[in-house]
Amino acid sequence: MRNVLLIISYTLRESFARKVFIFFFGISCFSLIITGLIFGLADTESILNSFFRSTENLSGNIVMMIEFTIVSPLASLGLLLSIFSASSFIPVLLEKGNIDLFLSKPLSRPQLILGKYFGGLLVVFINIAFLVLGIWIIISWKFSYWNPDFLWTIATITFTFAVLYSLIVFFGIITRGSLLGMMTAYFIFIILSPLLHAFVEQFSGFIKNGMIKKVAEILYYIIPKTSELMGKINLDIAQGKGIADFQPVISSFLFLILMLLFSIFLFQKKDF
Amino acid sequence: MAMNSIEIRGLTKIYSSGIRKKTVQALVDLTLLIERGIIFGLLGPNGAGKTTLVKILLGITFPSAGDAKILNEEISNYHVKTKVGYLPENHRYPPYLTGGEVLRFFGRLSGVSGIHLEKKIDELLELVKLSNWKKAKVKTYSKGMMQRLGLAQALINDPELIFLDEPTDGVDPLGRKEIREILVELKNKSKTIFLNSHLLSEVELISDRVGILNKGRLIREGTVTELTEKKEEYVIKLEAGSGEDFLKALNFSRVKEDSYFVRVSDTFELNKLIDRIRTHGIVIKEIIKQKASLEEMFISLITEAEKEERK
Q1: A-chain residues near B64 (CB < 8 A)
Q2: Residues B99 and B207 both lie in one domain
């Protein structure tokens, strides 16, 4: 455990030395300042009253929707930046002259990989938490409505990154490079997951070809469901409704575990 | 019987690469025992398998066959590495860390912590003459400074066994001498040092035993004296001006004033020659057994091995 914690702290230090995380942090700060300025200047209460004749509950939902509307695109951008930055953690570790040093120390290979994995995760968690918490404080303070459920979005966004990061670690170990892992993660996050989700939810009835239908369904269950995690599940949790369907969470979590196990298995056997 | 720091039995490493799985034998059935408390120098041309051997002993690469122990533990047991130090060839430290931070991080990874670690960091930076650079980022270090920091890193956990891969690479002559002195000092503290180096003169100066590796095979192993000794070749020094004509008649060749070279088939023949010289009233001042330099011996061994291979 001590070794894993050491590698986590080292990864944290490594990430602070990288400009992408500072850029992410800068965007978060800038977003918080802009949000603060807008909501500081606007007379939001009269807007709410005139448009919605708000009851307490209705204004609560609206506040949450405002928070979510601001956080959602920023979190997606943050996730894209995090994937970009974290994708090089493993390839840098595996560079000649660097990996030799780590493996010559009294720590096991799984400890090294898990340390790097959780280190990357912690960095993203800190960044996301800073952004979400900041926006939540500004808006809740402005509307005098405090909905702690919204903070669960920190967990959902971090979990989404955790799933994609396991894939990046896996490809990082196989290729010793960052490109394939990064591209695959982007492909799943931006294209494949939303497409498969839309297919299963809306279009599967229109497809007549049984073979295509079957392949799409199998793919849907295998590929991590980042679209649902960042969309419906995130929104439901933020509203305090809880998770209606655990399937996307469980199947994505299983994907994460499998990717990590494969990564450790491959890393255990690799010569450096 | 002396305890061994390293025990290698029948170690073989085959690398395969590409779609056709083209294989390269990096180590072939290598067996070697290295006693505790000595400096062992491993020599060999590029690609001989020196680094592969060290990497297998440290669990960085896995053997294809055979087994090995370090400090009496199987190499698969990573806990033994708390007592091992390693300076890899072309090591890379994170450029954003300072020299002190590098030592602190790798010290912690090696199981050292607290005040003891801080004391050790200062002590080692002093030893490798980098005390003034403790707070400087390693990206500002020169190649020689990086090597010295690497040496400090290898010693941070006060190891019993130290692997050094080209430790003086990029270090100036004075720095090399200092590193040699550190290594001898470590040996005097009963540490075992496994030295991989291209610099034969350096290995010759400090190693107690030397192994020569060529194409994955250990072709010679022994003390520097054993390896460099020329069989039955002597220089005989005489009292000034005595017996020159007599020695020439016996096929001695003159190498210097009053010094003559002779090659004999065995010690018995040498004794017979000495008797003849002595009965002739010539005074012998010194008989010196001839030695080759490690470099001469190395080149001749590798050339011989290559000739054998071509046959």
Answers
A1: none
A2: yes
